[in-house]
Each structure stands twice: as C-alpha cells, then as structure tokens.
Amino acid sequence: MLTKFETKSNRVKGLSFHSKRPWILASLHSGVIQLWDYRMGTLIDRFDEHDGPVRGVHFHKSQPLFVSGGDDYKIKVWNYKLHRCLFTLLGHLDYIRTVQFHHEHPWIVSASDDQTIRIWNWQSRTCISVLTGHNHYVMCASFHSREDLVVSASLDQTVRVWDIGALKKRSGTAAPVDDILRLGQMNSDLFGGVDSVVKYVLEGHDRGVNWASFHPTLPLIVSGADDRQVKLWRMNDTKAWEVDTLRGHMNNVSCVLFHARQDIIVSNSEDRSIRVWDATKRTGLQTFRREHDRFWILASHPEMNLLAAGHDSGMIVFKLERERPAFSVSGDSMYYVKDRFLRFYEFSTQRDTQVIPIRRPGSSSLNQGAKTLSYSPTENVVLICSDVDGGSYELYIIPKDSFGRGETMQEAKRGSGGSAVFIARNRFAVLDKSSNQVFVKNLKNEVVKKSSLPIVIDAIFYAGTGNLLCRAEDKVVIFDLQQRIILGELQTPFVRYIVWSNDMESVALLSKHSIVIANKKLVHQCTLHETIRVKSGAWDDNGVFIYTTLNHIKYCLPNGDSGIIKTLDVPLYITKVNKNTIHCLDRDGKNRDIIIDSTEYVFKLSLLKKRFDQVMSMIRSSDLCGQAVIAYLQQKGFPEVALHFVKDERTRFNLALESGNIQIAVASAKEIDEKDHWYHLGVEALRQGNAGIVEYAYQRTKNFERLSFLYLITGNLDKLSKMLKIAEVKNDIMGQFHNALYLGDISERVKILENAGHLPLAYVTATVHGLHETAERLAVELGDNVPSLPVGKSPSLLVPSSPLICGGDWPLLRVMRGIFEGGLDNVGRNAEEEFEETADADWGDNSDIVDGENLQNGDVSSVKDDGDVHEEDEEVGWDLEDLDLLPEIDTPKTANNTRSVFVAPTPGMPVSQLWVQKSSLAAEHAAAGNFDTAMRLLNRQLGVRNFSQMRSLFLELYMGSHSYLTAFSSAPVISVAVERGWSETASPSVKGPPALVFKLSQLDDKLKAAYRATTAGKFQEALRLFLSILHTIPLIVVDSRREVDEVKELIIIVKEYIVGLRMELKKKELQNDPVRQQELAAYFTHCKLQIVHLRLALSNAMTVCFKAGNLSTAVNFASRLLETEPSEKQRNTARQVLQAAQKNMKDASQLNYDFRNPFVICGATYVPIYRGQKDVACPYCSSRFVPAQEGQLCAICDIAVIGSDASGLLCSPSQFR
Fold first, then answer.
1. Distant-in-sequence, close-in-space partners of 351: CB < 8 Å, separation ≥ 6
2. Can you give the pTM of this predicted structure?
3. 2-167+194-319 under CATH 3.40.640.10, yes or no
4. CA dihedral defined by 886, 888, 891, 893, rounded to 10 degrees?
5. Cβ neighbours for 950, distance < 8 A, ≥ 6 positions apart
6. By CB count within 10 A, which of 903, 968, 987, 1057 is most buried?
7. 274 near 287, Cβ under 8 Å?
8. Which residues pair with 545 in a beta bridge?
C-alpha cells in the first residue's frame, strides 16, 4: 500500500472521487461533508447542513454537483462551485445509507433503512421509482456502469439485482413534467411497480449483507456481509449464481468492490483491515491493518489507479502498486520495462521495440514489478531490481538478434539485495542491508569483492566508474569502492531518485517535496522546495534541470531559480531532454514527446552566466515579455535590461531610476509630468550629484525651499540671491529669512525681521553683528522695551561653510557604455537630440519658475534689483508665469553619443541588510540594527513580550557590531559593519555574520560570580547576576550542537536558582508568618542547586522547622543533609536535631509540604504543584506555574508570557543544517 494522503477527522462513512480534479468528498458521522484536494493535501470546503451522520455521498460525472444522504432522511443535491445546497429530496422514512448519480441519465439512486430503494430525477426533483422487496434495512444500492441494472444489499441476507430497462424507455420519451403526473400512479402502485423489477435474488450469506457492487465490464457481482465473508457471483441473461467465497476477515465486512484497472477485489472490515484478493484465483494477496480504527467505506477512482478508505478517525487515499516505469537512458536510446517485457526505444527515430520477456507468467503479486533498471551499453546487459522476496535483482544479457521478436524467455541470473547498479562495464554492485556491505559481482553473478560501508546505508546509486552514491536516512555520501573512503557527503531530506548531468559534473537529488542540486563532489549548490510531489527530472544541454511534479513541468537554474514550463493533465516521467523536446514515459509505459518553449529559462540562464550578447539577441528576436520577466530582472539586479521590455512610461520611469539611467528618467518624467515623479527624479539626480537635473526637477515642481538649499550646497550664491528676491516678490517671509541666512546677509536679515514686526529680534541681530546705526534706530523705536544682551558672550557671524564643489556636477566613475545601452536604447531620436552636448551647471538663468499671482497687478517688472526698476527688455529676474520651455535650450544634458559615458557607481547592499536576510537568529538581527524583526523572532521562538529588560542589550549588540570612521568635517560619519571571524584572506564578496559582544564564556564567568554571591549570602546581588544571564541568553550565538545543549542546560540552572532566591527573599519579608517561612525554606531545598548551596538550604530549613517545633519535618531535612557529606559543623548540628527529635516525632503546625510526593514549585505563587496536577510553563525558561497564571508575564525570567505558543530557542546556525 502506497499512502498518498491521510486525514484526521470524525468517522468517515461515505467517500467519492471527482472524475477529473484531484478531489475527494468525505461524509462524516458528525454530519459534516469535507471536500479535500488529495494532491495538495488541503481542505477546500466543508458543507454542514445535514442533521446527524451523513452516510452516502457521490460526485456527478460531468456537472459541478454532488449528492448526499443522511440520518435526517434527506437527500441533498449541492453545487460545489456555488458552495451551497441547491435542493432537498424528501420521501425516505428512515436513515439513508447510500446515494449515487447515474452516469448518463439525470437520476439518483438511494438506499434506506425504510427497506426501499428510490430512483429520483434530479432535474425535475421528483421520485420516479420506488424499488420494494427487501424486508430489512437496505445497506447499499448502485447503478451498473453500462447496463440498465441496479444492485442492492440488505440486512435480510440477500443481494438483489433490479432491471430498470422499462424506466429508461419511459424516461427516454417522457418530459420531466410527466414524472410529476406519474407520481400519484407510482404511489398507488408502491408495492408492485412495473418500471423496475427484481431480476435476481442472490441468497448465500448467513447474515446481513452490507455491500454489493458490479464489476465495471464483466457480468460479476461481489458482496460482503456480517458473516465475515466476501462472495463472488456471476450472472447471465436468465440467472445468477455464487462462484466462490473469500474467507479471511475476522469481523463484519463493511465494503467490497472490484478494482477499476486490475483483476483484484478490495474489501475492508470492522476487523480494522483492508484485504486485497486475486479475482481470478480467488486468493488473498495482501492485508493492510490499522491499530485502532475500524474501516467502513471504500471508493475507487473512476479513471486513475487510486483507492480511498474511510475509518473511525479519518480516511486514507492510497495506491496498491507503484506506477513509475523503470527505465535507463543511454545516449540516444532507452531500455524500459512495460508489462512483462523489456522494451527498447530510440529517441531520434521513435522506434519502440519489444526485446525480451522478463518475468515468469503467473507472478502477479502486488508491488513485485521492476523498481529500478541499470544498463551496461558495452556488454549489452540489463540489471533489473524489484521488491520480490524482500528485495532482489535479475541480470539479463540482451541477445543482438532479439530486437523485434522478444518472445524467447531466457533464464536470468538472480540474487537478493536491497539495490543493484552497474559500476563498470562488466561489474555491478549489490547492497546487502543485513551486513551493511556492498558485493561487487561480475556478469557471471560471482562475487569478486566485498566492501563494508562506513555508515548504515539503505540504497545505492551510480556515481561514476568505481564509485557509489549511497543513501542514508538523512544524508547521501559518495563512496569509492577501490580506496574504500568517502569522497563527499551532503545532508539532504530522504532521497528517492538521483539524476546525473550528461557530463557527470552535477547531480540532482530528488526527494518527495524537494530537489537538491550538488556538484560531483556533493558540494551543495541549491535546494528547491515544492508543495506538490516531485516525480522525475533530467538535465538539458545548457545545464538546466527540467523536472516534473504531479501536475507541472518545471525548470531549475543552477542558482536555484525555478519556474513553470507547462501544466500536465497526468503525471509524466521525464527520460531525456533534447533542445525543445522533452521525452517522457507515462504511467502506462507509453512514450510521449512534448514540445516546450525554452526561451524563458534560456534567457534567465544567459543573464545568470552574463552572456549579454545572447541576452541582447533574445531581446531583439523573441516576444519574451510580461510582468514576471520584468519582476525577475528587477529582483536579479538588471533593471536596465527590463527597460527594454517596457512601454508604459510610469514603469519605465521607475526602472530608469533603479538602474540610474537619468536620461530615460527625464524623458519619462516629461511625458508623465506629475509633481511626484519630478520629486523622485530630483532625489535620484541628487544621489548621483547631477546638480543640473536636480535644479531642473525642482524648477518644474516650483520647490523653492529645495532649490535654495541646492544652491547653498553647490555654492551658487548668485542664484541664491535671486531666490531671496523671488521670496520677497511672493511675500514669503520664512523663505526670505532662510535665503538671507544661507547668504550670511546680516542687514537683509535685520530688515526682514523689522518688516515682519519682530523689532526685539531685529535689535539683537543688529547689535550682535555690529550694525550700531541700525541698532540705535531700533532702540529708539523700542523705547523702554529694549531687550538685554547676555553678558560675557563673544558673538560670531553665522556664515555657511564653503561647498566642496562649486557649481557643476560631481565627478563620476568613467566606464564604457554597456552592451544594453546604445544598441537597444528605444528612448527615441528626440530624446537623444536633447542631450547633444554637455551642459554647464549654471544653465537656465531665464528659467520660468515663479508664479505671478502674488505680484502687484501681475507685473513681473516690480521685482527690484539693488533698488532699481529695470526695463522690460532687460534682465528682470525670473519670469514667474510661463513654463513652456524649449527642450533644446533648457533641459540639462546628461550624456552624449560617444561610446564612453559617465555612470554613477551602483551602491552595494549594506552588510547589515545581508545579515538580516541570511539569518533567523534574533541576536544577528539586533546586531544589524533591525530591532523590530529581532523582537518578532524572539516573540515567535520564545514567547518574549517584555523587551524593556533587553533594551540595553540590543543597543550593546548593535554598537558592538559596528565601527565608525570619520572622513572630513563636512562629510557624515561612515558606519562599518564588523564581521565575525573576518580574516585578510577572506573574499570581499563573501560577507560573514556579525561580531557579537555576548559570548557563552562570558556567561560562564557571570555564573561563577553568581555562585560566589549565593555562597556569601548576597542574595540580591546573586539574583541580579542570574537574571542578567537569563536576559542575555536569547542574544548569544554559538557554533556547535554541543554548545546549544550547554546553553539550554544553563537556562535550567539559572531558572532553578532564581526560583530559590526569590523564595528566600520572600521568606525574609514574612517575619510574622512562621508557617509560610517554613514552607518557603522547605521548597528551597527542592530546587536543583550546587551541592554546597543545597547543604546551606537544607541546614537553613532544618533550623527554621526545628525552632518552630516541626520536628518530623526537621528530621527529614537533617537526614537529607547528612546524605550530602556536609562539613563537621553541619554534621554535628544535624545529628543533634535527629537525637532531640526522636523523643517527639511530631509537627507543631501543618505545612503545605509533602516531601514524599514529587512536585515542582509555582514561580509566581510559590506553592507546590504535585505530580498529576495541571500546570502551565514559561516557553523560555520552562518555569512551571499554576493554570491561573496563564497569559501573565513570567515572574522568573520577566520577559516571556506564560503558556504562549513558541517554537523554541534558536542560538546556532547548526540548528538549521
């Protein structure tokens, strides 16, 4: 049995496969109907309208319908696309056992405990026939797949076959309305209808019959009953008779049916087993058992080799046999097994030939077919492995004259072994699992060499001449049979198949849901995960791995990128990939050729390998386009290539900015002409230091504040003074003041303040900067309100520092024009003409950027320059109205047509960002400064919610993993990431993890200090140190699994001490409660402490209890103390207590303490939680609490939430391998 899908639910009473989609309906005893996708393993929908168990369910063959029947006497017809019940059919008077659609007519047949079978027309929604004759519950009823027959089984110990031919003739001519007219006649004729008559009554079972079903093609019926027997019946036109009885079930047989594609019968029973029988020999083939679940129902897929069985706690979808054909490809040909023959297929000519029969006739056991096939082309020998006798192989020498005939049966050389494979032209290796050895044999099947394997292996594969690729449970190794050493090793999921590339340089390791690509030495290259099962794969000539899942053909590039090539209707097994043709075998062993379009993955591969000439030719010649390709190019850092696929101006603009192509960005911004786009263009141009474009963008958006600042940092004082005048014209007081401040113009600032009415500020400014005449004039105006100036201060003039580069653009890196520029630029000739010559940065003196709306009478000439008014034909400042500039004059030039251009260097990704992308360790996220994700990780892994305790630790991590360099005074400080384990020999392109300030060794030192403080009785100091360790542990990173175990052990140690110390401190507060003091002292002795501290705790508890008169309890502590080999003083004290207490072994007061019953201590209430009582735990420190504390902050670690769901501590990269 090969289980494909399994669910956990209430008892499943009804099952039905969809004929086309990978869906199955399961009706439950709880009244719910579930719709599952068994291929994806997901619940698609649930339907919950029946009141009580639903015993029958069935999909319609072609319509989006299914029917259900339940214990509420109702038959419901549902539309699964509309997610609702369409209508309900009423008529049955008791539980409905089964329902089924007719394959051709609009009929439903239903069986009920009211002893009748009803046939309904679901189009007219009426009952068209009632079949009566059974005198007990009718357990099932179903239509024949071809003839006009119905079979039913009943607890009256009979199986009945009904002829509904008359009903078919009637319904063939009658309209749906006639069904309604005939309903009254039918009811009056309830016990003697003529539409459906009993053809046969099959009697033979000794008890009630639970199930009966037709053979899909032969005149056979199979039935199962409470007498634990399965009976096979044959029928002809006149009679039916019992053929044989199949015995073996140990309890009632629930369901039985014929397999749709093989001569076998499948039955299940309340004895918790599924049995498979040979329908021809009438013998048992296999039995599958469950531990605790009784089986109730079976279903067979109408077209595929799938079965489903419902049991007490869910259902399983399974196959009886493997359907993957065994094959071996050699050059242009392939040998494969189909039915009982070895066949030969030539890819180029598509010649398919039967070679030799390979299996003895009559060996029809399940799962005994060929599993793998290995071929030696030089010797023309085939090695076929199967599961016969627990694993065996057969060696066939192919005669040269056998092609085309393939009838002579030759005696194969046989042997036992888990797997066998050729390792040289005349040598093959056989795995002996029992001894974990590999036997090397010759073509005479003689052992020539034995090699013991260094690890436990369960399968071997070919890995080059003399080498084996060996599969263990969680890894694969390459083993050299000559040297008997392991050449390579790789951790992988359980590998099912391996596929070597044509040059044997790469290997694909196929697991159930993943593909691992490695080189010939098993060095990992990439891993690909799939949600649907991976079925097969092959390498193409370009080094791309093409593989199939259950429903797709996909590709995998060497870097792990994947994509879908084609959708499949049925699973296929790829045998060879030749250019655009994929050669496959289907499950029936038929060869298929599929033509694919490889443009997409060849294009991506060319990009990956930097074959830009090939990329350019593909862009020119192919219709490769679409959002997926554009997104891929952006993701992989090729936005300049994506530009050539895009016509939409907004997308072009974004891609141009991303690739730093200011030229195309300007052209697109002019087409779009929106403020937001000009702003983003200005930001990118400023990043590149292209002052001309920045100025142009700010002018287009009339962003005067940014313009002023641009002129300040570029040192363009002339234009800055003009900005001052424009602000004055626009009556923008703050703009005027800022520009005056940028210019360092004191008198202008005083004038602005005075005009704005800020006379005290104007007076202070004039006085500080030595404008005494102006200050005196303002003092007169202020009178008695003259502000006082601070004494002893030396004023200094606030003047902006000199710019680094005055005017012009920043110097850029000089590079040659790339292959994608020039040859493929489709910006247009007009755009190129705009940038014919290099522009000076001081262009655009007459640019139109100011509105005239705020001017008096709209007169631009009112702008004053040095107090004079210019004539209209002279320079009058900047026109504030018109923005229709000629591009040839006003647009800044960013490039020319030469092959050599200036390109801004592309910034790399910050190392801190790489740390975040590569790691799932909270410490490394905090070190990168990404506190948000670090906190989310800690919350998910450890349930941490109170981060206030860890704030300083986060900051220490961040500061400790970065260094800071100063360049020169006006440049910002440069932050440099400090990597862990960095060396001068390391590659600059490979970035290591962050250097962390917290180490496990530091925590060990702190633990020793805490021990010393505990010994000295400094409990507050010890508690502070233990808490510090507990708060730091989530933010350390260790290298090995052994260190991970040490960290987890450290958490337990620290937690125990914190619980004990908190109780000891609590005890000191309770001076007036001697009973509670004794309890806390007693609980302290049950913490897992160092032996020296345990002695102190026991001594303390013994003293407290003895003084309080609790002598019996004190004796217990004294005895425990003596067991710890204490000091002389402690030993004497303990013996004195024992002697004194022997006279009166009683306790003066009752304590909540029973040392005989194991317990843990609640970390919040400090009460014992005895074994068997419910408790909740902290997900981080694992402290235990009473259930009432769930959801509260842990009182021990003070950072995690009690009872929250968490995945566990992650503190090492080794936990991800």
1. 344, 345
2. 0.57
3. no
4. 180
5. 944, 1031, 1034, 1035, 1199
6. 1057
7. yes
8. 539, 556
